[in-house]
Amino acid sequence: MLRVLAVDDEKPALEELLFLLRADPRVRSAEGATDATEALRRINRALDAGPDGDEAIDVVFLDIHMAGLTGLDVARLLAGFAKPPLIVFVTAHEGFAVQAFDLEAVDYVLKPVRRERLAEAVRRVSDLTAPTTTTATVPVPAAPVAVDSAPDQIPVELGGVTRFIPIDAIAYVEAHGDYARLYTDEGSHLVRIPLSTLEERWAARGFVRIHRRHLVALGRIDELRLDAGATTVRVGGAELAVSRRHARELRDLLMRHARR
Fold it and tell me: By CB atoms within 10 Å of each CB, which of 31, 93, 199, 230 scores lowest?
């Protein structure tokens, strides 16, 4: 279960966030801090106590706009730690998503915080902190999976210009909180659509969820690898982790396709 530190300099917002976090059965404890200095002091104290200590922190739910150091400043400082806690940004501002994920945030939740959206962020953190197991290599057929041939496209913004990217050109998608980054052979594009929405819309087109952060076109998977308890897939030049909860389903899908 998760040990959480929530940081927000607005006390009502902090109390609401803590209330929602403490109501989640995956959260063992949730404590609050009202500024970055206090948060860093608690994180340092928790690291000194060790990962199994009572003060250990698994994840920090962090506001961005605060007096003094901002949430982004705190994340940059934590990036220099040997074993920093995971970070979820909780903010009223949409414009910092790219910076947040450049700092390897697990999620980016917009205020006002909805219970369901916060639960999704907690799930993502839980997936990252869960232990994994297994070994072996399964070859994957090169033939693409059959999907709906409708010429569906998705609009993306690039330098003030709207382009329309064919869905069939997308190899995989990476979650960035309420945003998603689409990867094609030519590059990547950030769109403001949650990964869960794309997962639902594109299931009929052969896209499968392999991890809290990734949705993959099944026909683009070149290899599934199980090595030392970790499952990964190769999609073009990218190697993507497969979470334990998705590994069996993915192997079954690939084997059924191979038998065809």
Answer: 93
